[in-house]
Amino acid sequence: MCGADQQLATPALAPIGVGTWSWGNRLLWNYRPERDDPLLLDTLQACTKAGLTFFDTADSYGTGKFQGRSEILLGQGLSRLPAEQRQRVTVATKLAPYPWRLGRRGFCKAAAASCQRLGRPIDLVQLHWSTARYAPWQEKPLLEGLMDQVRMGGARAVGLSNMGPQRLRHAAGWMADSGVLLRSVQVQFSLLSQQPLQPGGVLEVCRELGVTVIAYSPLALGLLTGRYAANHLPPGLRGLLFGRLLPHLKPLLTLMGEIATDHGSTPAGVAVNWCRAHGTIPIPGLRHPHHVKGMEQALGWILSCDERQALDRASRELATLMPQNPFQST
């Protein structure tokens, strides 16, 4: 389906989504296919049963020889679902603006490859990051190429990722002039990453433009789950980071634990509901079926205004601790 009808068929984005960055990532998440693939496929099935039907991925997800693995696993998992469940799923992917992907047709092969790995058209195709810092002239043609995907039926809507408020206004203007409206912007956002919440930041601009904000890393790589302590750290780079940051987080984690108890939830549930309370759709990374239960339960309650404000206060001085994505533009 092409043309105006295709553009009106915008995808439904669930109130809590699922991030799949870790699916295939060895650098931070120690991915091993023989151990992890069955669990990841079971996780996808558990998510859809729980009503977590919005999945976000990217063509660059997966380390080294496993690049594209996240999309492959997502496609495999979706193919195993009953048709009724599969129809309720929304899939977003991000295409990386590598230097060799040039001009309006720069994403043609990449989009086709993503569709093949996913086994379906893309519901929400996103520019993975802005090229403003190294090739500003490249950005508009690439966005035109993504809009062409909507016009040709290879995608249903276009989103952006890792884009700050200044560049966002430019891109939204280009898209509006071309007749394909911007659907969403995806940014790093959590109790430990609050840059989008600043005055004039991405959240304010998106409210003005009527654009949905998708919050990635809402659990701050797992720091906000309450599972870790100085004597219990994950392996590798995450462990090094957690060991440095955890001593500063005790007051915030204590408050999160108290709020979680009041709602019969978990600190992870508090973290994602804080993102929801600020009008965003969090996409926590889920890698095991037991992770899904906490997110399903988090759908059933919301933070009170007082709880949200208490979390805002407790996290305000900590919000610059978490490393920010170097691909984020201004």
Would you give an account of this structure?
With 330 residues, the protein is α/β, with parallel strands linked by helices. Helix content is 44%, strand content 12%. The chain has an eight-stranded parallel beta sheet with strand order 1-2-3-4-5-6-7-8. Helix 7 links the parallel strand 5 (155-161) and strand 6. It is globular, with a radius of gyration of 19 Å. Residues 1-8 have low confidence and may be disordered.
Question: What's the gyration radius in Å?
Answer: 19 Å
Stretches where pLDDT is under 50 for at least 5 consecutive residues are 1-8
Sheet-strand content, in percent, reads: 5-15%
Q: Which class do the helix and strand fractions yield?
A: alpha/beta
Termini distance?
A: 35 Å
- What is the percent of helical residues? 40-55%
- Which strand order spans the largest sheet, edge to edge or round the barrel? 1-2-3-4-5-6-7-8
Number of helices: 13
The largest pleated sheet is described as: 8 strands, parallel
Task: Count the E strands.
Answer: 8
In N-to-C order, the SSE pattern is: HEHEHHEHEHEHEHEHHHEHH
How does the SSE layout of this entry go?
Elements: H1 3-8, E1 18-19, H2 33-50, E2 54-56, H3 69-79, H4 83-87, E3 90-95, H5 108-118, E4 122-127, H6 136-152, E5 155-161, H7 165-178, E6 182-188, H8 202-209, E7 212-216, H9 236-245, H10 250-262, H11 267-277, E8 280-283, H12 289-298, H13 305-316
Parallel strand pairs: 1-2, 2-3, 3-4, 4-5, 5-6, 6-7, 7-8
Helix pairs in contact: 2-3, 2-12, 6-7, 7-8, 10-11, 10-13, 11-12
